[in-house]
Write a structure and sequence with these properties.
single chain; 403 residues; alpha+beta; L-amino peptidase D-ALA esterase/amidase; Ubiquitin-like (UB roll); six-stranded mixed sheet; five-stranded mixed sheet; 33% helix
Length: 403
């Protein structure tokens, strides 16, 4: 994971460009174009927020109507909460790119991120399109990763090579996300591509499986955005016979590479959480079922009291215990609950572990990466999610977001 341009691998058949359209920011790129090529296939997952942004609605429609050729992504304006005008503006952006490139409007998928409730400056986007089209380049990944940032402090770009039919294929992805991050699909924008050919339905399966344990298993602040989207595209430029069997070695290799890219990007989002100083892994074990395990993990991860204790490096284990107790588990036998900070047992038999010391707890909490493990003593199901602490800077960043 690096801002170093040499750290990424280009994806054969795909070109990108970024430019400064002046959508909200001054003096930085804020508009990205991805040319997927004429033989591309796409899969995508979108936010489950009821106030789905206009670009989400349009992207879904276009994805169902045609094979995408271009992705058009802007930062600084979410085009969400904008009603019928927002839909018209998203469609107008697609039409402007289609006119410039000769494709159909339905072959353009629009994506937006930024401030909610403000009209999209379509004229600025249209005026920037000539520079975008002219600048398309296979090496455009780092510029694109920077251009889609909002409150992010660093770009998020990663690549993984893998083998298909004796050929070396590539998966490369970028993502943006720092705040308004809570698992409920793919809580951010992410764009991932490979040159390995794969059937469309299997591509969607690959993405859904990868997202489940990565982007859908992170949370910064418990807020699900109106604009979340994750796209997985294949250019097919590797020249392999399209992967069609989910039991094949080719699919296993592709799925592992896509999941690794998603996991690295998802972890980078939590590390870059607004004002975050700690990366926290929550592991819930011995639950009656996966949903129960996830409910406990979410309750701990979304607790402001737990998150502020993490920021203070305070081993206030009572806050963790209280979160487990209010997670809504029926007939929870507290005598069966055990909790660890790292490898330090802090709760056994529903109370403080006999050999626990504050010094040991503080030593774990002072580290930049912390693991909290909870065993419920109810079954064999488990869940793992990543979260972060809640700092003074989180409040400052979000209080000043529109100023």
């Amino acid at each position: 994971m690096s801002d170093d341009a040499s750290a990424f691998l280009p994806v054969a058949g795909l070109r990108l460009a970024a430019t400064a359209a002046g959508i909200r920011y001054r003096g930085r790129d804020d508009l990205v174009l991805m040319d997927l090529g004429e033989t591309a296939r796409c899969a995508a997952v979108f936010t489950r927020n009821a106030f789905r942004a206009a670009p989400v609605l349009v992207a879904e429609r276009h994805l169902a109507a045609a094979a995408p050729r271009f992705l058009l992504i802007n930062a600084g304006n979410a085009n969400a909460g904008t009603g019928e005008r927002g839909l018209a503006d998203a469609l107008a952006s697609c039409a402007a790119l289609a006119e410039r490139t000769g494709c159909r409007p339905e072959e353009v998928l629009p994506f937006s991120t930024g401030v909610i409730g403000e009209p999209l400056p379509v004229a600025r986007i249209a005026a920037a399109l000539p520079a975008l089209v002219a600048g398309l380049d296979a090496a455009g990944w780092p510029a694109a990763a920077h251009a889609i940032m909002t409150t992010d402090t660093r770009a998020k770009l990663v690549s993984r090579p893998f083998e298909v039919d004796g050929r070396t294929a590539t998966v490369t992805g970028i993502a943006k996300g720092s705040g308004m991050i809570c698992p409920n699909m793919a809580t951010m924008l992410a764009f991932i591509a490979t040159d390995a050919a794969i059937e469309r339905d299997l591509l969607q399966r690959c993405l859904a499986e990868a997202v489940a344990g990565t982007f859908n298993a992170i949370t910064v602040d418990g807020d699900t955005s109106t604009n979340d989207a994750c796209v997985l595209a294949t250019t097919g430029a590797l020249g392999n016979q399209a992967i069609a069997d989910p039991a094949s070695p080719g699919y296993a290799a592709l799925a592992a590479a896509v999941t690794a890219v998603c996991d690295t990007l998802a972890t980078a989002i939590v590390r870059d959480g607004e004002g975050a100083t700690k990366l926290v892994t929550l592991l819930i074990e011995e639950a009656a079922d996966p949903a129960e395990a996830r409910r406990v993990a979410d309750t701990i991860a979304h607790s402001p009291l737990v998150k502020t204790a993490l920021f203070a490096s305070d081993p206030n284990w009572g806050r963790i215990l209280a979160a487990v107790g209010r997670a809504g588990l029926a007939d929870l036998d507290i005598a069966g609950v055990r909790i660890w900070l790292g490898e330090v047992p802090i709760v056994t038999a529903g109370g403080r572990a006999a050999d626990y010391t504050e010094e040991a707890g503080r030593a774990v909490m002072a580290a930049p990466e912390i693991a909290i493990r909870v065993a419920l003593g109810r079954g064999r199901a488990s869940a793992r999610i990543l979260t972060c602490d809640l700092s003074y800077d989180y409040v400052r960043i979000n209080a000043e977001y529109r100023t």
